[in-house]
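Bug #77: duplicate submission created two jobs. Keeping one. Sequence:
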Amino acid sequence: MFSTNHTKNNQLQQRNMKFNEWLAGVIDGEGCFQLSKKGYASLEIVISTRDQACLYKIKSAFGGSIKLRSGVNWLRYRLHHKEGILQIMNSVNGLLQNPVRIAQFEKLCLKYNVALVKKPQDITYYSAYLSGLIDSDGSIDYNLISGQVFITVSQKNRFILNKLISLYGGQIYKHKNGEFSAAKWTIYRKDEVMSIVLDYFKENPCRSAKIKRIHAVETFHQLRKLGAHRRPINSILGKKWILFTKKWESYGDLVWKRDGPRLI
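Kept job's structure:
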């Protein structure tokens, strides 16, 4: 009995750690800890409506609210009650990697007299941090001409991205996003992409709609190798290719209704 309970406790602790690592990646990517002039603490995370599942998982764990940002296709999660803030602080303390986010987090630690873990835990290959970062700030797409799949993460600075290169390979490029310059970590070599898809994401699946494209990467390579994208649309392979592209593009087909998101 002791052995069984001990195993269950270890499994629960491992699941909790995976969730916390993923959460730290999401917050580092698109989150913001705030402390108002009146001393009110809050956490906000803004994510595309198609990836709203992430916010609902966080809300389920810590409470808070989710609202559609006026006039845009983005959702804002906001947590401001003390109990939830302290729970989420306890979950990600020592797991955040973004220097900007850590500086914001430190202000809340001072307010609530929470001991800040000064040195962030090192990211390892199987840390769920990457899946959280991709859920919030990443993308998965392909170039039909070159036959390459691109998995990318964009950040204003390359501090976090440098860590990704040492673990997963890839390169960092300068990226222009509107008026702002950013850095973009990209992997596109087939061996690197398939290693992450078939190995890393098996253990650390994304929790957003992006998992649909991750699951479709292997199919893309198989169909392209068969030349399905060049076959007549009425042929068997042509039909498979059309079906594949529809599923790939359906990843983004979400609209927001008053009672929540709906696929279209």
